């Protein structure tokens, strides 16, 4: 029910909008907004697809870089494995030489380091650190000085329990202290109870060649955060702490992340590589800004939105002028209608055309012709009607003049009652007695308040008469709080409710009809309720009755009594007081009201306060 009411209100509001505005609003909701929403949806989907494709492409590129890097680092690892078991190297670094000539002869016979750097492009340099005091430094075999011994990679290599390899970004004093990604590995000579540290430098050109062709910013860094290769060569050799990226991915694990880099939303892809036989990892990072990916999509979207906007503007202009032309024709027809409303029935419309408005104009002209013809007939009918009304008024005056004297009526009823009583017709006598009392009470009522007991007596007399009429079809009950019988109330506010219950609730019932009157005190207020178990009423009819209680122009007979009671209560006690009606089909009707025990003076004192 509430939904239907809401729909009715919505339709009424729509009907109140001018037709030109309706067409424009319809265009906005049916065409403009859907097109914009579809455009936004497609643009967002296009952007997301491009970002997804770029991310997947970058992930694939990083995976390729990881594989190429693993292949590049595999050769230094294999060479280190060979050197660790090379008996010639073991003998060279552990022999105690008598003089420099013996050392130079040993160096001349051992050219493996030089051969490896020449044969394999991945190898840039090889050197071996040994503590043999008889060795002479020759850029390949070096006695570590204090500076070397204090480096983290040298200490780490000697402190390891196993001779596993580590990949570090370290300076090579044999290359002018230039830094390289180097494989550092301890070589243990058990039979000599000595050890040394093997360092294999990776060719930086090979590393940079892996990332130089990437579309996005890509770099490789070691576990210490040193960048060993990058698309932007200016980053090589720097630590992440020295760059703007330190907060973005220094401590992050492998995965894909969203971040703000240089003030722009960006994607960060991190891939880890644990080279075979190594104890530490290398990380590969690729970064691309979302803007760089969607810039082309934005350009296409802007072009599409421009075309859509121009098309919508043209369509809007056409709709506007078409609706204006339509509205102008309707306004001309409205002016003709206004002239007719002012009494000019000789209007000739100038609207032409075969569309709906033209058809309406022709029907309007035909209607005017019919109205003029009917006016003539109505005038003749009114003349005859006026004559009839004059005659009816004369009859009413004669009836008023012959009205029966009330005392004569009471005496006549008393005579009828006594006659019935003498003939043993007790029910008839009781009914006539109740009728006489009812008439006397009604005639005695003036404009002042009466005790509740008197009002209930009137209701009881009425019910006695109706019970005589309906016999066993009607019963009634009165549940009255004795403490409220003396309270003053306006006259004739209960009897109309009882009459309504009998006539409209119980009259059509064949048996079992019941009317109950209840009166009591609740929080300094008098509560009066009239209920019946009659046919009840539907929700629609109940709503109509509730609305008619506020409508003084509603003259329907079956609602006059209820409306009079409701309006008298509201006028006497205030707008918050009046009848409350509830009903259900086949379950009866309940009518009640609550009024202050102080009467109308109580309400007036509240209003003044």
TrEMBL record:
Flavoprotein keyword on record: no
Coiled-coil spans in chain: 371-398
Main location: membrane
Membrane topology designation: Multi-pass membrane protein
Recorded GO CC terms: plasma membrane
Subcellular location: Cell membrane
Domain HAMP: 324-376
Gene Ontology MF terms in the entry: phosphorelay sensor kinase activity
CDD domains assigned: HAMP (cd06225)
PANTHER family per UniProt: SENSOR HISTIDINE KINASE YPDA
Protein name: Sensor histidine kinase
Species in which this protein is naturally found: Paenibacillus thalictri
């Amino acid at each position: 029910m509430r939904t239907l009411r809401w729909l009715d209100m919505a339709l009424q509001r729509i009907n109140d909008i001018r037709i030109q505005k309706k067409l424009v609003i319809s265009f906005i909701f049916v065409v403009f907004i859907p097109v914009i929403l579809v455009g936004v949806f497609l643009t967002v989907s296009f952007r997301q697809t491009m970002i997804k494709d770029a991310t997947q492409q970058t992930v694939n590129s990083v995976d390729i870089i990881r594989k190429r890097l693993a292949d590049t680092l595999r050769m230094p690892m294999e060479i280190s494995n060979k050197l660790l078991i090379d008996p010639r190297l073991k003998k060279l670094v552990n022999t105690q030489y008598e003089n420099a000539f013996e050392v130079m002869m040993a160096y001349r016979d051992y050219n493996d380091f030089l051969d490896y750097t020449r044969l394999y492009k991945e190898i840039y340099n090889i050197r071996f650190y040994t503590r043999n005091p008889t060795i002479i430094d020759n850029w390949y075999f070096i006695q570590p000085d204090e500076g070397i011994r204090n480096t983290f990679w040298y200490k780490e290599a000697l402190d390891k329990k196993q001779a596993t390899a580590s990949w570090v970004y370290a300076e090579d004093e044999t290359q002018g202290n230039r830094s390289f990604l180097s494989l550092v590995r301890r070589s243990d000579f058990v039979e000599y109870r000595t050890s040394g540290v093997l360092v294999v430098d990776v060719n930086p050109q090979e590393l940079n060649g892996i990332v130089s062709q990437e579309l996005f910013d890509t770099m490789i860094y070691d576990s210490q955060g040193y960048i060993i290769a990058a698309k932007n060569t200016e980053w090589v050799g720097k630590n992440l702490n020295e760059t703007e990226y330190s907060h973005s991915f220094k401590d992050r694990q492998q995965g894909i992340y969203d971040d703000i880099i240089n003030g722009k939303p960006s994607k960060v892809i991190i891939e880890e590589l644990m080279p075979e036989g190594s104890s530490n990892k290398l990380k590969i990072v690729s970064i691309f800004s979302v803007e760089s990916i969607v810039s082309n999509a934005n350009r296409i979207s802007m072009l599409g939105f421009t075309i859509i906007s121009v098309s919508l503007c043209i369509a809007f202009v056409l709709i506007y002028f078409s609706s204006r032309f339509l509205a102008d024709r309707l306004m001309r027809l409205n002016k003709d209608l206004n002239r007719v409303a002012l009494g000019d029935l000789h209007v000739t419309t100038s609207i032409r055309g075969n569309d709906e408005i033209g058809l309406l104009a022709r029907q309007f002209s035909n209607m005017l012709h019919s109205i003029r013809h009917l006016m003539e007939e109505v005038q003749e009918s009114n003349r005859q009607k006026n004559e009839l009304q004059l005659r009816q008024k004369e009859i009413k005056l004669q009836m008023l003049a012959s009205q029966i004297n009330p005392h004569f009526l009471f005496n006549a009823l008393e005579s009828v009652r006594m006659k019935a009583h003498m003939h043993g017709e007790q029910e008839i006598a009781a009914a006539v007695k109740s009728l006489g009392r009812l008439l006397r009470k009604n005639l005695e009522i003036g404009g002042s308040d009466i005790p509740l007991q008197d009002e209930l007596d009137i209701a009881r007399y009425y019910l006695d008469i109706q019970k005589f009429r309906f016999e066993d079809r009607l019963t009634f009950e009165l549940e009255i709080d004795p403490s409220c019988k003396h309270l003053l109330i306006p006259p004739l506010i209960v009897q109309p409710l009882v009459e309504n219950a009998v006539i409209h609730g119980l009259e059509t019932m064949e048996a079992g009809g019941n009317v109950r009157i209840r009166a009591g005190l609740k929080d300094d207020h008098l509560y009066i309720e009239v209920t019946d178990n009659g046919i009840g009423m539907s929700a629609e009819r109940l709503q109509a009755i509730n609305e008619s209680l506020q409508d003084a122009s509603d003259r329907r007979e079956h609602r006059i009594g209820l409306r009079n009671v409701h309006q008298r209560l509201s006028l006497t006690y205030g707008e918050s007081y009046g009848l409350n009606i509830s009903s259900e089909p086949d379950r009866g009707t309940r009518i009640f009201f609550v009024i202050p025990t102080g009467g109308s003076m109580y309400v007036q004192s509240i209003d003044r306060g």
